[in-house]
Amino acid sequence: MKHGVRRGWLAGAAALTLLSTTGTAARAATPGTAPGLAETGRSATNPGSLPLGPAGLAETRTTQDVAPGVTLTTITRGRVSPDDYWTIEVGIPTSSDVPPSPDPDAVTAVLGTHSAADAVVAQLSAAGWTGQAQPVSTPAFADVKAGVIGYRVRVGRYATQDAANAAAKQLKAARFKPSVVYTGFDGDSTTGPWVVRALTIDFHRFRGSVAESHDATLAGRRTTTQIAQDTGALAAVNGGFFVISENDGVPGDTAGIVVEHGRLLHDATNGRVAAILRDGGRRVELKKLWTGIDLVDEHGRTHRVEGLNRTPGVIRDCGGDAEDSPTSLPRHDVTCTDPNEMAVFTPEFGGPLPTGPGTEAVLDAHGTVVSAGPRTTTSVPAGGQVIEAIGTEASWLGEHAVVGHRLRLRTQITGPGGRTVRFGPNDSVVNGGPQLVTDGRVAIAPQADGLVHPDDPSFYYGWVLRRNPRTMIGTDRRGRLLLAEADGRQASLSQGLSIAETGQVMKSLGAVQAMNLDGGGSSTMVVGGQMINSPSDATGQRPVGDAVVVLPSRR
User: Fold this and answer.
1) Burial class (CB in 10 A: 0-12, 13-18, 19+), 189
2) Closest of 148, 114, 120 to residue 460, by C-alpha
3) How far apart are alpha carbons 450 and 448 in whole angstroms?
4) Which InterPro entries does the UniProt entry name for this protein (predicted)?
C-alpha cells in the first residue's frame, strides 16, 4: 500500500528536497546537520548527557526542525581511545575433541570452552604465534544471569585495520580461522566516539502521522531512502527484521508481524514484542503479540493456517507452533522449519510467489476457489488470494479446496493472557525486539526474545554484548514519539551500542518505553528524502523490508 508521493514539501521555513543519495554522499553529511535543514540550536560541550563512556567526555548536540512538531537531534560524544586497537579473533572449533581438530574445514565459533580456547592458543604457539584466551562475560539482564559465557582467542595488537588484515591473511595460510576486530566494538570500557540521532515527534504540534510501511510490496527489498521517497515521508528509519537469503524465505519479506491500515499482513513471531502505532502514531503500545489465522468454509468449519504472506514451511526467527523445528519459541536469526504447513498470500505480497512441492488453491475476490492443483501460480490475482500447502496440509487442501466453493480467511491478534488486540484503520504494527525500556526503567529480556541460542554463545556475544549500529523506537513522558539511530562499526566515527547501552541511551533520551528495531547494516535514518547517517556496510545503505515513516498531513 503505497502512500502518494509529494515532492518539495515545505517543513517550516526549510524546503525538503527529496534526493537520491549514495553512501558516499551521505557520509559527507555525517555527523553534521541534515542537508536542507536549518540548524536551530547547538549546545557546546555537554558532559555526561549520554550514558556512554566515562563521565566528562565532550558531547555536542545539534537540533534542527524537520517540520512543525518534528525535531532532529544529532549527538556526538567522546573521542577515539588510545587504548583501543585492531586485533584478530581466531575461530575455535566447535568439536568436543580436545585438542580440537586441525582440519581447516572444521566448523568454528568465536567463543568456546576454556579448554578449547587454550588448545587453540597452544596450536598458535606451535605455529609461531602468540595468542590469548580471554573470558567473555555478560551483565545481568531480566532473564540472563551475569557471568562468563565463554572464551575467545585473540592474536596481536595492530595500529591499523590494514596491518591486522595482513596478519590475518598469514594466519589463514597457516590453516587458522581468523577475523579482524576492533576492541572499541567489544562493549567494554571505551571513550568512543559515538554518533546518535533522534527524531522527536510532538503530536501536539505535528499534524501528520507515523506508520510502518513496506512500500509497494511485502516481497522484495528496497532502501529506507527509497521507501521514504515513495511514500512522501518527511523522515524515516528502517523498520523490523526481514528475510535476506532465499534459503530463509522470500527476500524482503518480514520476519514477524506486520499490520498496515488496521489489516494483518504477516503472521507474528509469536510471543515477541512489537510496536503498535495507533491513530497514526499518536499512541504507541509495546506488546508481545500472537496471531491466529483460519480458513473458514461455507459451513462455518475452520482449519488452522500457520503462515500469512510467507513461504510455507519456512519460519524466519521462529515463534511458530509446537511442530516447528528446532523450536516454537522466538529464536532470532534462526530459520525454523515445518514439513506440514499452509500459508495464504494476499495481493499485498506483491512479488513472485514461492513455488515447489505441494498444493495450491487460487481464490477470486469473492473467496471462490477458481483453480486448484500443484504450486505453479506466480502471482496473486487482483483482490484474490492464493493458498499454498505442503506435507499433510497439502493433502487437506487438495480435499477441501473445491472449485466453485468458497473459503474465507479469518485472522485474530492476541496479546498477553490471550486477550484480543483490535486495530483501527489508522493503526499499524512494526516488528522488532527486544523491549529496552518499560515504565521508565531499562528492562531487557534476551532469553525471552530469542537472543540466547542454546550451545551457541557466539551469537549472543556478537548480537547482544558487542557494539553494533542500532535503530530504536519509543515514547517519552509527554507522549512524544522517539525514533533513534546510532551509527556503529566505524572506529573513528562511531563505535555503536551494545544492547544494554541501547536501552540506557533510550532512557537518557527520555523514553519511558522503548523497543529495538532492526540494526547493524540496516540502521538508517532519512530526512527530506536523503540519508543522513553513515551505514556500516562497505557497500553503503542496505535494502530492507520495511520502514517507519513520518508522513505529512494529507489534509
Assistant:
1) exposed
2) 148
3) 6
4) NAGPA, SPOR-like_dom, SPOR-like_sf, TAT_signal
